[in-house]
Design a protein that fits this description.
The protein is about 25% helix and about 15% strand. It is α/β, with parallel strands linked by helices and about 400 residues long. Helix 2 links the parallel strand 6 and strand 7. The longest helix is centred in the middle third of the chain and has 17 residues. Pfam families: Hydrolase_4 (PF12146).
Length: about 400
Amino acid sequence: MGGVTSTVAARFAFFPPNPPSYGAEPLPPAPDAGTGDPKVKEGSAVVELTGVPRRANVEARRLRTKRGTDVVAMYVRQTGAKLTLLYSHGNAADLGQMYELFVELSAHLNVNLIGYDYSGYGQSSGKPSEQNTYADIEAVYRCLIETYAAAEENVILYGQSVGSGPTLDLASRLPRLRAVVVHSPILSGLRVMYPVKHTYWFDIYKNIDKIPLVRCPVLVIHGTADEVVDCSHGRALWELAKVKYEPLWVKGGNHCNLELYPEYIKHLKKFVGAIEKLPPPNDESPESSGPSDSSTQTGPEGTEESRKSTDHREKTRPSIDYRKSTDRRDKPRGSTDRRDKGRKSVDNPDRPRASVDQPDRPRKSVDRFGGMMKAVRLRNIDCFKVPTASGS
């Protein structure tokens, strides 16, 4: 059955750029590699990215996943940053194409940022699959904790399009995560093609079942003119989030160009600023800094528990074994037709559906962001499309 799931995923989800837009060359070992130098860690080796500009605050690594593939990740260090953004990019993109966006996001949001290529993308080894992407993001999160000394409560997970899958999967198993952003997200892989009302075992990226398990604030960003993943996906996920942040519905935005709108970076800056002011989340298990399997979870005060479901449960994965974790299991939900009322809004509890379609006057630095992103042609780097029938 797992093979069927992988086949479904391969047919309509994964389109790695071919050829890759960058290279990754190994660096010689550091002279003090045996003295605890952070450049040399077990399952992690520093590499040099070629085909992209060199920057002193950017470091790239090749990380070994628990499924045996080696994924390439780039870390952008921002002096004085308190938070770290772990970014899972969209389809038909790789690190070479995302490089400038990552550097600019880090600077404009004043966060450290780590982005990575899924197995089979860019210079990462292996083949793309749903399960591989889960292992990929876990390896990157582990790198953040062990190599860059990040703390779970200071990490924001960001998932774009297909990247919303590994993002929400990991977020559902991190009880003390600071926040989550999903950008043009999908309810599930099958729901991109068909308006099904129930979750089937062969579906992939069952975000609809996982977002109710996320305890931290969730920001949803979606274009109202998205013809690839309808805006209804983003709206439904926002409805299901336990802790809502004011969403961004980009009027006229499509699936591949939201970064070009001034309200995009403006709203993200506002979100990061609000998250920084919130106290770090408390959890009953302070020693748990790695992904854990989830069960019924009580969210922050004023939110509801995850609902029971009659859908087929997907097989839960074991938690990463480098940290202690709570032994919990995911409880997926039922049909999308049911909507919970009265959920907590982080930004404005009395007005949970506030829209930023008409933003205030942006600052000049925000204006420049859209221009810079247009220069790197972001509209071409995320096409979650269903391929036409072929013999392949």
